[in-house]
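Good morning,

Attaching, inline, the backbone tokens for the sequence recovery test we're adding to the shared suite. The designed sequence is right after.
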């Protein structure tokens, strides 16, 4: 399989807004602070929200390193919150 056919296969399964965004962009989209975002993801926190999108590890080292979120998941979470009000 050549690189052109691999690229075509990848493009055919991508969903719009399915890109990885970093914390700064999640903060900008949600209006939440960095600490609140991590609290929403922490089951031990009083501000835990099981519906908040999980981050994905971008590096190879577990527990540390860069993380990101799927933009479409963040947008869907925001939409859900708007619909719940």
């Amino acid at each position: 399989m050549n690189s052109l056919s691999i690229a075509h296969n990848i493009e055919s399964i991508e969903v719009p807004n399915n890109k990885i965004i970093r914390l700064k962009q999640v903060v900008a989209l949600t209006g939440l602070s960095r600490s609140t975002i991590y609290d929403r993801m922490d089951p031990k926190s009083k501000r835990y929200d099981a519906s908040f999108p999980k981050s994905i590890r971008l590096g190879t080292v577990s527990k540390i390193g860069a993380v990101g979120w799927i933009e479409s998941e963040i947008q869907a979470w925001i939409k859900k919150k708007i619909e719940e009000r």
